[in-house]
Amino acid sequence: MTCRIARMLRAQKKHISFHTPGHKRAGEDITELSYSDDLSDPTGVIALAQADAAAILGADAAFFLTDGSTCGVYSMLYALRTRGVQTLALPVYAHKSVTYACEVLGLIPFFIPQDVEAGIPRQPSLRAMEASLAHADAMLLTSPDYYGFLPDLAAARAVCAAAGKPLVIDGAHGSHLHGTPGYAGNFADMWVDGVHKSLPARTQGAVVCAKGTWTGPLAQGAERFRTSSPSYPILASIEYAVKYPRNLSIEGAAQAAKRTLGALENDDWTKIVLPFGEKADEAQAALERRGVYAEFNDGNYLMFYLSPATRAGELKKLVRLVRTLPRGEVRGERPVAGMVGSKTVMVPLDEAVGRVCARACGVVPPCIPLIAEGCVVTAEAAARLKAAGHTFGLVEGRMEVFEGEE
């Protein structure tokens, strides 16, 4: 299938630039010119590329985003807000962008409980979804999550349909699933694909989609939150990625590698999740000395992220190296809820132990809470945050907790 935006960029004439960007070199990285179309009001190649994407993804409308899936989350929640949604049911361990968008847009989050097994949040149960939706105007789910698990989307769709409430899906890590039964677009009213995460697109490339009467509100949301100066190379890569074919060979090799390495039995071939327990930091360092970098280390597991562009030889090297590494025991703490109050204080991590977290915080990636708001801070969690190279929810190494101790 033709990649329209890339073809337009290749066909451009050499010219002298008296336009942005400031590097003044005509090439792929251009701005809105007479021939290049305009993402804010597309009538040419971008409009055609978005229409192609909508047809492929099973949507009535698709909107390219050069600001990542976070922009899509904000756009979807804005659309909900304009249609009268005030309370949103969402998983406790949703991506940080979801809770931040609720804050910005004035949506009240109603958290769907999730069990934590062997250190990993599990997808919400049907009973939990039903109970939470009874208190909310809409529901958002994450599918798949960062550990490669899918919720029961068919059940979620049925629950929302019975209640007459919309279902939106953060599918940031599931763009490679389009055309398969587990794809978010088979069930959602609106959903976002982070195509740069599991398809061969440039970083920040994403697409947000809608069906039916949600197309208009979502268009308004995308217009308000995405940049007015989009990257044309990213736009071209989004189209290329959506049109990229499945790689059944690497999918099969990934499943074989999971069995060989004793990976978690998850629902997503692109995510190889290996238990290392207290040996996780040691294993990460050993692999990086050999030039192999995992997607993340959460202190228990290393997650290795594949895509249709993964080379078979690279996967074989991963299997060969990992088989030589020692494994430790996985440490799995269950979160304990504590008493919350109206006043909070910022304290160093060591002083936060035993107190109740007032703002969710965690490791980046996976950008989901290690400690959720309202949970008691454990010594293990505090130590993991101190050891992590990148975190969210902390301010200069200090955590916001509710006043008083458990």
Question: Topology of this structure?
Answer:
Blueprint: H1 4-11, H2 45-57, E1 61-65, H3 68-82, E2 87-91, H4 96-105, E3 108-112, E4 116-117, E5 120-121, H5 126-133, E6 138-142, H6 153-163, E7 167-171, E8 190-193, H7 195-198, E9 206-210, H8 215-225, H9 232-242, H10 248-261, E10 271-275, H11 280-289, E11 296-297, E12 301-305, H12 312-322, E13 344-348, H13 349-352, E14 362-363, H14 379-387, E15 391-392, E16 398-402
Parallel strand pairs: 2-3, 2-6, 6-7, 7-8
Antiparallel strand pairs: 1-9, 4-5, 8-9, 10-12, 11-12, 13-16, 14-15
How would you state the average pLDDT, rounded?
94
Distance between the termini: 60 Å
Based on Cα principal axes, name the global outline: globular
Q: What order do the SSEs take from the amino end to the carboxyl end, as H and E?
A: HHEHEHEEEHEHEEHEHHHEHEEHEHEHEE
User: If helices are DSSP runs of H or I spanning 4 or more residues, what is the number of helices?
Assistant: 14
Tell me the strand order in the biggest sheet.
1-9-8-7-6-2-3
Q: Provide the structure class.
A: alpha/beta
Give unreliable regions as ranges: none
Query: Percent of residues in beta strands?
Result: 15-25%
Helix content: 25-40%
